[in-house]
Write a structure and sequence with these properties.
By secondary structure, this protein is α+β, with helices and mostly antiparallel strands. The protein has helices at about 10-25, 45-50, 55-60, 65-70, 85-90, 135-160, 165-180, 210-215, 225-230, 250, 285-355, 360-390, 405-415, 440-455, 490, 510-520, and strands spanning about 1-5, 30-35, 40-45, 95-100, 105-120, 125-135, 185-190, 200-205, 235, 260-265, 270-275, 400-405, 425-430, 435-440, 460-470, 475-480, 525-530, 535-545.
Amino acid sequence: MTVSRQFKGSHPILQEFVLRCKNFADLLYDEVLILDRDYNVIMANQALLHNKGWAADEVAGRRCHEVSHGSSEPCQSPNTPCPLVEALASGSRSRVTHIHRDKQGKECFEDIAASPISDENGNVVGIIELMRDITEEVELRKALEQRNADLATLNSIIVAGGKGLTEEKLLTYALDQILENTGMDAGWILLREENSRSLRCIKRLGVSEEFIKAILSLPTDKTLCGLAATKGQVAMVDNLSQDPRVTHPTITHEGLRAFMCVPLRADSKLLGSISVAGRDPASPQASRLQQLVAIGDQLGIIVANVRLNSSLRQYAHELEEARRRREQSASVVSHELKGVLAVLSGYTQLLRKRLESQLPQADLGKGLEIINAQTNRLNRLVDDMRDVSAIESGRLTLVKARCDAVGLSRDVIQGQQALTQKHILLLDSSEEHVEGEWDCDRIRQVIDNLVNNAIKYSPNGGEVKVSIERRKDEVLVSVKDQGLGIAQKELRHLFHPYARVHKEIKGLGLGLFICSGIIKSHGGRVWVESQEGKGSTFYFTLPLR
């Protein structure tokens, strides 16, 4: 125990109090200070000297705020009331929690109980302070509060994920919650493009558009955000503007300091990254980074579920659309078949009657020609239905042989030109022959169907051009018309079975689906470019080896 050199000049009551409690005070683990009315230290027990790193002669005669706070000024303020002032003013016990410092300036939280020491007349002659270090309790309470805040943030994001929000709205809400939870000034979420390493920003807060563009302009393995999104790496930086890994001037000039970045992950799949940053010089804490990692993992799962639900809704919509098209087409097929059968039946009965009445040879020939045409039409309907079934079940059979794309196109053009006078059919090829191993009949079927469609959907006539271009390892064939064109919203359904754009033009809507199936079975691609009212161009490729 230390008794200050001011002990002899203090009040007799205070002297007596110190003599009575000095031995007992040194047995306590809690810290004890006895002070006079001027805040001078009269006594400090061994626990205080040990915990705060003071020597006995250093404490003697000092003011309490010098010993407890390392400050030359009293600690009284609106936010940190001084227990001595409270006890002296009220004459009763005062209890507060203060941040104290040891001799080296290290902070700790102290629970302080200050009680007045009074004489026989009730006059306060000094104060005794009993102090207990509660730093661990305070830090545990703060950690628990932060954990509860993290759980509340996660819970709010999970609840938002169950409300049917779009991916963008969900991530916008999540970023707001994360910034509020971390206390950071800025944040941004980057998502990976499907089947790609490239990134796009889904949401940014507190940073400029130029800052995000600068990040996205760099290779993903050259940015902390990119490494989190593509490699699953976690980053924590004290000062982003001075980090040697950050060299882009737009990024460094943003003035961000404390920075954390974590992957947005759904199980083992990386979806993107979450970044938060602050302009305050305070360093980020490892515990906050761990919580952000947990949020990134949970949010990734929620995003994956949102995407799955969106895909399921889209799939259900497409199934409903397919069902609707099938019902419509079944009606059309039924009508077509009834029409063909009605013609066949009618002409068969007519011919039978005419034969009984000696029908002239010319009329007999015309009737047989009509029957033959309707029979061919019926065969085409049956063939189309069989092809659709084979393509949908993956059973389309190819009989490959050496074929010439230019020759097949020329044959189709000559045959179709004989059937129309309103259209001019042209062949554009820089080479006389472009050959490959394909199913010749099937490829002829594709070209014939595309040319026939070009004629059918150009009711006012015009030019239909078939172009053939040899590329490195494939041939590109295109059929261009000057007809009705196709609205943009219809393009994505165009190669589905039973898809019909212009309902006023007869057809089952199977031709393009069959063409697509044939080309894909050959390992090629098929697509269309069109503008409503300005015609269409259909393309397909075939491998040359």
